[in-house]
């Protein structure tokens, strides 16, 4: 989805198509310049309540977008759909991120800071993120399976942002030989022999009731519910991820 765009000198009516980048805009102090968001944008909860919704991340309401008269639209290659983005590009300035690791995440934050003339707040957020991650040092990785979906079970491959978050937080992804988001059979899970199974809160909302199903498949594995936002949101929420990962790793190490 690579294309060059001319950015307005200081965009004043921004539509965000990605939840984690929506939160970033608010944390940069741009609440008054956010013209629209998706129905999946949930943070910050109070400020987003009255913002117009333009559909989902993969099904835009083009009439609503037109009515909002945006001078800039911010999306993401993975979270949005190419057909919709190309249609938007015909009429609007569309800026896209493409993120698979922490370096690319902080660079996205820096670029949005430059584009929106909020460079100093962006640098502060980046500093807080990197400070939180610098204390993560786990040479002994715990073999782990991370699931994002059920029926079928879906995990994460080596080329995903979540994979790097697993690595940085001290876990060895047992499905690292796969790419993207592979479907995993019960037999594949059993063969992988994870010491830990991490069940994400999103996109599938895993709950306590799902633990016995996995325990039956892998009776020797520790099964734990985790905050999916910490593993997959690559905006300003990363400020809290380092501390979360430290506590998670500590709790799991104690339980094994």
UniProtKB/TrEMBL annotation:
<dbReference type="Pfam" id="PF01497">
    <property type="entry name" value="Peripla_BP_2"/>
</dbReference>
<dbReference type="InterPro" id="IPR002491">
    <property type="entry name" value="ABC_transptr_periplasmic_BD"/>
</dbReference>
<protein>
    <submittedName>
        <fullName>ABC transporter substrate-binding protein</fullName>
    </submittedName>
</protein>
<feature type="domain" description="Fe/B12 periplasmic-binding">
    <location>
        <begin position="13"/>
        <end position="256"/>
    </location>
</feature>
<keyword id="KW-0732">Signal</keyword>
<dbReference type="InterPro" id="IPR054828">
    <property type="entry name" value="Vit_B12_bind_prot"/>
</dbReference>
<dbReference type="InterPro" id="IPR050902">
    <property type="entry name" value="ABC_Transporter_SBP"/>
</dbReference>
């Amino acid at each position: 989805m690579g294309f060059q765009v001319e950015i307005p000198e200081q965009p004043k009516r921004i539509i965000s198509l990605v939840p984690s980048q929506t939160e970033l805009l608010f944390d940069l102090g741009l609440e008054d310049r956010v013209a629209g968001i998706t129905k999946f944008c949930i943070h910050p909860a109070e400020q987003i309540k009255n913002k117009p919704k333009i559909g989902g991340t993969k099904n835009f309401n083009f009439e609503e977008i037109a009515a909002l008269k945006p001078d800039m639209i911010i999306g993401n290659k993975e979270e949005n759909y190419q057909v919709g983005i190309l249609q938007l590009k015909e009429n609007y300035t569309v800026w896209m991120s493409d993120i698979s690791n922490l370096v690319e995440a902080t660079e996205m934050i820096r670029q949005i800071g430059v584009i929106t003339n909020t460079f100093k707040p962006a640098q502060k957020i980046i500093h807080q993120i990197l400070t939180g991650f610098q204390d993560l040092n786990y040479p002994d990785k715990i073999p782990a399976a991370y699931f994002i979906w059920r029926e079928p079970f879906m995990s994460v491959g080596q080329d995903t942002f979540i994979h790097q978050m697993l690595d940085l937080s001290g876990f060895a992804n047992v499905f690292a030989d796969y790419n993207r988001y592979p479907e995993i059979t019960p037999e594949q899970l059993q063969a992988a022999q994870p010491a830990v199974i991490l069940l994400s809160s999103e996109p599938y909302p895993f709950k306590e009731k799902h633990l016995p199903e996995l325990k039956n498949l892998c009776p020797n594995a520790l099964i734990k519910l985790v905050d999916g936002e910490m593993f997959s949101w690559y905006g300003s929420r990363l400020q809290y991820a380092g501390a979360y990962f430290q506590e998670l790793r500590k709790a799991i190490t104690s339980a094994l």
